[in-house]
Design a protein that fits this description.
Helix 1 (about 5-15) packs antiparallel against helix 2. This protein is of the alpha+beta class. About 40% of the residues lie in helices and about 20% in strands. A hairpin with a 4-residue loop joins strand 1 (about 25-30) and strand 2. The chain has helices at about 5-15, 45-65, 85-100; strands at about 25-30, 35-40, 110-115, 115-120. The chain starts with a helix and ends with a strand. It has a four-stranded antiparallel sheet with strand order 2-1-3-4, sandwiched between helices.
C-alpha cells in the first residue's frame, strides 16, 4: 500500500458505502497495514463487510498490479469501543500512528470526520 494508487484503492473501497452500510469516523492507510474506526448496526454486518472489503480490495489491487494471490493477512485485530474515552483514544491512535511509525507526509493516507466534515491528509 506504499504505492499512492494502491492506497487510494484501499481508502476509496472502505469509504464507498460510508453512511449507508456503516459510519466511518477515522481511517489511516499505511504502507503495510491500516487502521479504521467505524460503526456498524451489528456484529454480523461488521464481519460480513470486513470479508467483502478484503475480497474486493485484494481483487482490485491484484488486477492493478497484474498479479494473483493473497493480499491480506488471514486475521484481523478488532476492538469493541465501549465508552467515549475509548472512542477518543482510538481516534488519537489512528491520527498519530503514521507519525509514531516515522512516516513522512506522502507515505500514508489519512481520513477523519469532524462535525460532519471530512478531513484528508497524507498523500492527497
Amino acid at each position: 500500500m506504499r504505492d499512492h494508487k494502491i492506497a487510494e484503492i484501499v481508502r476509496d473501497s472502505l469509504l464507498h458505502f460510508d453512511e449507508d452500510r456503516y459510519f466511518f469516523t477515522d481511517l489511516v492507510v499505511m504502507p503495510n497495514h491500516l487502521h479504521y474506526l467505524a460503526g456498524f448496526p451489528d456484529e454480523e454486518l461488521f464481519l460480513k463487510q470486513n470479508t467483502d472489503w478484503k475480497t474486493y480490495i485484494a481483487r482490485a489491487v491484484n488486477e492493478k498490479l497484474g498479479r494473483k494471490g493473497d493480499f491480506w493477512q488471514p486475521d484481523q485485530f478488532d476492538h469493541l469501543v465501549r465508552s467515549e474515552s475509548q472512542f477518543e483514544y482510538f481516534r488519537k491512535y489512528i491520527r498519530d500512528n503514521p507519525q509514531v511509525a516515522g512516516l513522512p507526509q506522502g507515505e500514508f493516507l489519512w481520513f477523519s470526520k469532524s462535525l460532519g466534515k471530512r478531513e484528508n491528509s497524507g498523500v492527497d
